[in-house]
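User: For a reading group we're discussing how well predicted structures match intuition. Take Undecaprenyl-diphosphatase. Before you show the prediction, I'll give you the sequence so everyone sees exactly what went in.
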Amino acid sequence: MTDSMLFFIKAVFLGLIEGITEFLPISSTAHLLLVGDWIGFDSGNAKVFEVVIQFGSILAVMWVFRSRLWQLVHGTFTGVRSEVLFTRNLIIAFLPAAVIGALTIKYIKMLFHHPIVFVVTLIAGGLIMLWVERKPHFAKNASNETAASEHVSARTLEEISWRQALAVGFAQCLAMVPGTSRSGATIISGMLAGIHRKTATEFSFFLAMPTMLAATAYDLYKNGVGISPDVSVAIIVGFIAAFLSALLVVRALLTFISRYTYRPFAWYRIALGLVVLLWLWRSGAM
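Assistant: Thanks. Here is the predicted 3D structure of Undecaprenyl-diphosphatase, as structure tokens, for the group to look at:
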């Protein structure tokens, strides 16, 4: 097997990893960088590969929600109040990350070179998720239905307030730190703000669309000129793999959260963080 063929196989593998992890609250960035390092995949210092294939996952969620997305666009331009308010909330939630990200992107990228950051964010994120899911109003049993009803003020996307959207937007800024998880930060913050678990997940999906489109466009603008032909092909195959795998995960996640909590993902984050910590210690990187 030639080096080029092996390089493309690794790109497909990482594309599958991206599609599987992007919408799960376990940090796709952590998985891409850790697995990429493990298999010896080098796409260059700019990390354009990792960012662009993430947009493949976003296109997958756009396809899954294509009917609702068309309803949103059409309703906004025709003045349907509920759709106009939904669009307003997406803009409100998008702006904090856009502004803060533009101001801090240089410093944030420096964190990608420190694996211990992944350990801290993975474990801390898992502990926060466990803490949130232990609250009575998030419990999945009948005895807590009253508490849940009192806490949850938005059971549909149209019922989300601008304050709740802003809270989710600021939480999305935390996801700039490697290992935090964009979906995890936005979903959990939405639940804490009073948005129903399934609705918070769907809002996170919709918010990912402008966020990742902006991130992809920015990285291509800043680093696209220097991409080699091999990396360009790797991006394409990784993009396709991410799109196809994300199609399956999005539908499966929505089914899962309608029946269960996010606790399994919290324990997975903690376990992964401990594994990375052990690896750093064994390799003398600490």
